[in-house]
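> example.struct
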């Protein structure tokens, strides 16, 4: 969301399809307004919701449209009234008035049999609006008008599914793509990709043909050569822009990572991960971790998002336990009831 907000990719689809969690209590994606802390969107099992008052009241959006499951949501940071939704089997929808009206944007996402399942939506910063999708059919980029999508998979070989994306905030031509078999990187805005798995895909794993499913990506906004990758089997970090990865967080209660967010701070950047066993935070680049799950009614954290304006709030979406917000670096959590008026 992964944004990142960062989303949990095809794991979200699994939870939705299997019916795990209950209705609005399962929050699979969160999008925060870049300047107004009172406005945010969440995607639940019952569809997307929006609040104008910091979560006191909520309203349903995207009503009367396709019944396809919504998996992803993102706000255009340069024009916050523009919102994109990604669905399980109906492509992408966009709204230019904060969710009141919606336009289908599925052209280019269809093949003869299926519409690409959209895992994540990201906006690349810059004067020209560039929108990228991680989908079950690969990476796509919108055209200049934003009316159709072109596949951007040159160099990504033997992989079909893209599960996560992350864009360098200071060098938007640099992006990472997470796939069902590791990480790829582009330095030309998605035109070409190269695998970036050194230190991540160990020889034993390759020999046994076990894929490394990437579930989440996050770039440190202060030091963009530092990035984090969450997988189904461990958490990894790079200090040099993806040339070499090192596994971190080996003592985390779960090695299956659902979501990652990096929060800038005066005491150092805070890395937060959500997993099936709760929320964990690190202020030393992942060397040590603290369990910050107290107060959450569900330990299975599917989505995280952090506000860009002070005071910094961190939101956590859980499987079956609803939405929470945390202050003081996610040390305390308070439930945010999803009361729809």
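> example.seq
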């Amino acid at each position: 969301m992964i944004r990142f907000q960062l989303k949990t990719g095809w794991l979200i689809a699994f939870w939705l399809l299997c019916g795990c969690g209950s209705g609005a209590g399962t929050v699979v994606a969160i999008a925060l307004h870049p300047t107004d802390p009172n406005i945010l969107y969440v995607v639940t099992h019952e569809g997307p919701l929006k609040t104008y008052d910091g979560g006191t009241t909520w309203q349903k959006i995207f009503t009367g449209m396709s019944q396809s499951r919504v998996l992803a949501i993102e706000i255009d940071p340069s024009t916050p009234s523009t919102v994109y939704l990604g669905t399980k089997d109906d492509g992408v929808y966009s709204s230019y008035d904060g969710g009141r009206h919606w336009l289908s944007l599925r052209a280019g996402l269809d093949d003869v049999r299926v519409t690409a399942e959209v895992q994540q939506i990201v906006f690349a910063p810059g004067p020209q609006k560039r929108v990228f999708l991680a989908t079950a059919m690969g990476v796509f980029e919108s055209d200049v008008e934003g009316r159709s999508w072109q596949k951007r998979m040159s160099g990504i070989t033997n992989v079909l599914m893209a599960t996560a994306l992350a864009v360098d905030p200071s060098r938007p031509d640099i992006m990472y793509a997470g796939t069902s078999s590791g990480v790829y990187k582009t330095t030309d805005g998605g035109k070409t990709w190269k695998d970036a798995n050194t230190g991540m895909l160990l020889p034993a794993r390759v020999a046994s043909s076990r894929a490394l499913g990437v579930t989440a990506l996050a770039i440190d906004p202060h030091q963009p050569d530092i990035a984090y990758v969450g997988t189904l089997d461990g958490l990894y970090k790079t200090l040099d822009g993806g040339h070499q990865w090192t596994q971190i967080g080996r003592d985390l209660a779960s090695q299956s990572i659902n979501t990652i967010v990096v929060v800038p701070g005066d005491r150092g950047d805070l890395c937060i991960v959500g997993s099936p066993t709760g929320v964990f935070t690190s202020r030393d680049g992942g060397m040590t971790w603290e369990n910050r799950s107290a107060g959450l009614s569900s330990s299975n954290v599917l989505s995280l998002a952090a506000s860009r304006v002070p005071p910094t709030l961190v939101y956590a979406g859980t499987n079956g336990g609803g939405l929470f917000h945390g202050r003081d670096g996610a040390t305390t959590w308070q439930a945010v009831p999803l009361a729809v008026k």
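> remarks
The domain at 10-336 is CATH 2.130.10.10 (Methylamine Dehydrogenase; Chain H).
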